[in-house]
């Protein structure tokens, strides 16, 4: 009827997406990877987020030159020391579980199919749609059920393990507050670095890494094809969707569990859905 037609017009994206070719994943299902050299992960650390956000080295009223001198004299030596000590003490224990699943969109829903039986729906995510701008929704970046074509979605969960959490807690209990701040922040940002590294690995597996920027720092601002969306952020705000990701990936295999409010334990862990579509970027709803 007329009213349903109006609703369809309101929810449809204002700018239709070009159909992107669907890359072929190297396998269907999930894998665990726990053999890492930390020197492979460290280059993907976002030191701006670490120094300013986690460690609270703020510029304040100082000039850029004064601030950079302080970073070189204070923050960078702490960073170098922690990289070495956390590696030699085996405090950081990186591990990843990730996988590839067939998927299709159904309106605002994203359907995930069984990796062996591509006709069997096993999970369904419902994402919010922008009320303005391009009226985007994450599901728009996948081939629809009407297309008859199966798309591919990647999922990942990475962790730095429990040991760095235990070390940080013991430092806090011993009133070593500065060292607690440095250790805790390092663990959190190392988890983000591993997520960034592994997203690059997954783009390589799909054969779309040719669009990656050659400079690692520019990868932090999405200079690559597709996107890595984590639950709790604007495009996929529903934290309870972590339960669906956990059912699909079984991150318990790398020591991760969900808390009552859907945070990942250990804290130095993060999960994401990996979207290959060239138009997939971060957006607010």
Overview of this structure, please?
By secondary structure, the chain is of the alpha+beta class. It is 35% helix and 18% strand. It contains eight helices and nine strands. It has helices spanning 2-11, 38-41, 47-54, 64-88, 163-173, 177-206, 216-219, 242-249, and strands at residues 29-33, 95-106, 109-113, 121-126, 151-159, 227-229, 257-258, 264-265, 269-275. Strands 1, 2, 3, 4, 5, 6 and 9 form a seven-stranded antiparallel sheet that branches. A two-stranded antiparallel sheet has the order 7-8. α3 (47-54) runs antiparallel to α6 and α5 runs antiparallel to α6. The longest helix is centred in the C-terminal third of the chain and has 30 residues, at 177-206. It is globular and about 60 Å long. The two termini are 28 Å apart. The model is unreliable at 1-9 (pLDDT under 50).
List the topology elements.
Blueprint: H1 2-11, E1 29-33, H2 38-41, H3 47-54, H4 64-88, E2 95-106, E3 109-113, E4 121-126, E5 151-159, H5 163-173, H6 177-206, H7 216-219, E6 227-229, H8 242-249, E7 257-258, E8 264-265, E9 269-275
Antiparallel strand pairs: 1-2, 2-3, 2-5, 3-4, 5-9, 6-9, 7-8
Helix pairs in contact: 3-6, 5-6
- CA distance, first residue to last residue: 28 Å
What is the overall silhouette? globular
Number of strands: 9
Percent of residues in β-strands: 15-25%
Largest sheet: 7 strands, antiparallel
Mean pLDDT: 92
The sequence of SSEs as H and E is: HEHHHEEEEHHHEHEEE
Number of helices: 8
What is shown here, in short?
The chain is of the alpha+beta class and 285 residues long. Helix content is 35%, strand content 18%.
């Amino acid at each position: 009827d007329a009213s349903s037609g109006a609703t369809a017009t309101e929810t449809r994206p204002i700018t239709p997406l070009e159909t992107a070719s669907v890359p072929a994943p190297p396998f269907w299902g999930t894998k665990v990877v726990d053999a890492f050299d930390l020197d492979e992960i460290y280059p993907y650390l976002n030191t701006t987020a670490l120094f300013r956000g986690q460690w609270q080295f703020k510029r304040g009223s100082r000039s850029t030159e004064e601030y950079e001198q302080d970073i070189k004299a204070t923050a960078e030596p702490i960073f170098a020391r922690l990289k070495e000590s956390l590696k030699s003490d085996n405090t950081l224990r990186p591990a990843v579980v990730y996988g590839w699943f067939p998927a299709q969109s159904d309106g605002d829903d994203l359907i995930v199919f069984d990796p062996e039986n591509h006709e069997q729906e096993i999970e369904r995510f419902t994402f919010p749609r922008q009320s303005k701008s391009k009226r985007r929704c994450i599901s728009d970046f996948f081939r629809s059920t009407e297309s008859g074509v199966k798309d591919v979605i990647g999922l990942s969960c990475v962790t730095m393990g429990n040991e760095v959490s235990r070390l940080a807690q013991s430092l806090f209990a011993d009133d070593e507050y500065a060292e607690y701040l440095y250790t805790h922040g390092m663990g959190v940002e190392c988890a983000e670095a591993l997520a960034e590294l592994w997203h690059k690995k997954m783009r390589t597996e799909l054969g779309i890494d040719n669009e990656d920027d050659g400079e690692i720092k520019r990868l932090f601002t999405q200079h690559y094809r597709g996107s890595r969306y984590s639950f709790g952020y604007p495009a996929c705000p529903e934290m309870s969707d972590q339960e669906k990701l956990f059912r699909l990936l079984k991150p318990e295999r790398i020591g991760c569990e969900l808390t009552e409010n859907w945070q990942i334990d250990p804290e130095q862990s993060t999960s994401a859905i990996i979207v290959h579509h060239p138009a997939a970027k971060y957006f607010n709803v």
